[in-house]
Amino acid sequence: MITTSIRRALVPGVAAAAVALSLAGCGSDDSADASTSVGGSSSASGLSGTVAAGGSSAQEKAQEAWRAGFGADNPDVTITYDPVGSGTGRDNFYSGAFKFAGSDSAIPAEDMEKATAACGGSDVIEVPVFISPIDIVFNVEGVDSLDLDATTVANIFNGTIKKWNDPAIAELNADATLPDLAISPVHRSDSSGTTDNFTDWLFQAGGGAWKTEHSSDWPVQSGEAAEGTSGVVGAIQDGNGTIGYADDSAVASTELGKVSVKVGDQFVAPSADGAAAGLAASKLADGAADTQLAYAINRTSTDPSVYPVFLVSYFIACPTYDDKATADVVKGFGQFVVSELGQKAAATNALSAPLPTDVASKADAILAKIAAK
Predict the structure, then answer these.
(1) Annotated binding site for phosphate
(2) Domain at 4-132+312-372: CATH code
(3) Average pLDDT in the 273-285 region?
């Protein structure tokens, strides 16, 4: 079904197309009819069939917008997207259960052999489609905003800092009235790209307070675990003295406080522009195949235009598929996602930053090569 947020939030043209659709699924496994019209024309594309996909829960609102806008031209195609988390999404892609996956972190090196096998021995396609800040959010009565550095956040989440009036927090928030209240950190229980990016920031910028490198699975024994982005946000809302992390789109409609993080000598609030600046300050990962645009994120910039706690979310697919119908749907949908129209739809519905033009162009060229075996 189309959610109310899609009807209300999509950009003009995409919204009209979305309302007209007859969708094939409901619940977390939403589905939308899909087409290959990246320019938003109303002509039928002639595609047909059903394609199952899933993964990143941070992509969920963007996927709603993409599938709704993409479906305007072809009522005979159904794409389902199950927001089961990045790790499970990748695993389901490797097994063949998903024809493409969304992942908030690049395919781990130890998984690349499985990804290649899933694509019949060919290099897997992996292109960025979604840039979003990760909000560090909290629920502390009487406190609306906080300034924190990465070291302090790391010590909160590793359990070293246990009270909200701890001197390390108080020193950074002289004007706040901090209660003598236990801190309850909340993290993802499932394998999550959001966790991977959050722990990457803690490790890179935490001054040694965070001992483990980035990981999609929560690496320390501390705090409360909750499943999925919605689970984390719900646990923070329902708790007292809670703090956690979630994609910006999942937090926008809440009244939770947001942390501004220290960058250089300033404290920077989460924003799509700040996340985009963070990508611009990063480089492509070494050793990537020609079919991959995977980034090694720089979390230690001192430029206050950068918000360093962000994710780059990927579209993972194969360069060839067993049948032409599937190949054409995956190719067309991917190209719509990275198109100007697709990126505007995601920015409106999911508060993401549009891909830089050169990145979108490179991604489109890679996706255009998808074909039947």
Answers:
(1) 56-58, 86, 104, 192-194
(2) 3.40.190.10
(3) 94
